[in-house]
Amino acid sequence: MNVVISVDMEGVCGVASWVQVSPPEFGGLVNAGEYERARIQMTREANAAALGAFEAGAEGVLIADSHETMRNLLPDYLDERVRFISGNDRPLSMVQGVQESGVAALLMVGYHARAGTQGAPLAHTWNGNVRDVRINGVQAGEPYLNALLAGHYGVPTVFVSGDDIAVRQVQDDLGADVVGVAVKEGLSMFSAVHLHPAEACRQIQAGARAAVQQAATARPFTVIFPASVQLSFDHQARADQAGRVPGVTRVDAVTVGYSSPDAYHLFQTFRMLCQVAQVRLDS
Ligand SMILES: [Zn+2]
């Protein structure tokens, strides 16, 4: 049995600010020291999940670095049995690897709540331009979209760690049998009460072990297809662009809609529209 671990950064223990998760190459509001510290904890949490998976009998563990540039993990700190994926612009983005044969489960580490969630640290969906995503009328964040894409390949999502609100959203959306580990309690968009980083890793390792032990009975996540998708942006100029893509309709000033026959089409269309909508607002 093989597993894929998708690792984001906003939901990692100790993180509560964009400053901590912004690689210095972006410029602007960055602090290299804080970023370097946060990527170490991100790596430790990914490794904790890998150790739990191995303890549960996984033979292959593939870790997908899935934040920003997707070059955050420090592989020297990872267990030597893992393989890892780094670098952006991947065919399946944050869940690259689930398409490989023999993958029995997806684990999500360091995940965060969807855009617009009150009290959830660094809540967002994909990039800062997306205000809301609805699939068949249900609000979807990154875990939902990624679980759906993994489900397209028959891979169930069995574990999530992050802030308490992100964990609750995943369990509400995917089912209570997804094992969740909250490494912090959200107080606001930019504050949280955290576990000790070492305790967070212990809980992630134990949770991942339990989740992978149950993977054989977990079901891949799916929705009713064809699915109706509505994507709302933070500015009408973005919807102007996205709404001109063939097959996409304009719903209201900031919202576009489309229909998808399967999760692969849904996910890739979502990505493309987010890309198209990245227009300059100061021109
Ligand atoms: Zn991220």
Polypeptide structure, described:
The protein is α/β, with parallel strands linked by helices. The chain folds into 2 domains: 2-113 and 142-217, 3-Layer(aba) Sandwich (Rossmann fold), CATH 3.40.50.10780; 227-276, no CATH class. The protein has helices at residues 18-21, 32-55, 142-152, 164-174, 197-213, 236-242, 263-276; strands spanning 2-7, 60-65, 83-85, 103-111, 130-135, 138-139, 157-163, 179-188, 191-194, 227-233, 249-252, 255-260. A 7-stranded mixed β-sheet has the order 3-2-1-4-7-8-9, with helices on both faces. Strand 8 (179-188) and strand 9 form a beta hairpin. Helix 2 (32-55) packs parallel to helix 5 (197-213). The termini are far apart. The relative contact order is 0.16. It binds zinc ion. Zinc ion binds next to loops. It comes from Deinococcus rubellus. Pfam families: Peptidase_M55 (PF04951).
Brief synopsis:
The protein is 31% helix and 25% strand. The protein has helices at 18-21, 32-55, 142-152, 164-174, 197-213, 236-242, 263-276, and strands spanning 2-7, 60-65, 83-85, 103-111, 130-135, 138-139, 157-163, 179-188, 191-194, 227-233, 249-252, 255-260.
Total strands: 12
Q: Give average pLDDT, whole number.
A: 97
CATH level-4 homologous superfamily of the largest domain: Dipeptide transport protein
Small molecules (ligands, ions, cofactors) in the structure: zinc ion
The rounded distance between the terminal residues' Cα atoms is 52 Å
User: The biggest beta sheet, please?
Assistant: 7 strands, mixed
Strand and helix order: EHHEEEEEHEHEEHEHEEH
Shape verdict? globular
Q: Which spans of ≥5 residues are poorly predicted at pLDDT below 50?
A: none
Structural class, from secondary structure content? alpha/beta
Rg result: 18 Å
Strand order of the largest sheet: 3-2-1-4-7-8-9
Query: In percent terms, what proportion of residues is strand?
Result: 15-25%
Number of helices: 7
Query: What is the CATH class designation of the largest domain?
Result: Alpha Beta
CATH architecture annotation of the largest domain: 3-Layer(aba) Sandwich
Helix content: 25-40%
CATH topology name of the largest domain, in short, is Rossmann fold
Pfam families: Peptidase_M55 (PF04951)
Protein name: M55 family metallopeptidase
Organism: Deinococcus rubellus
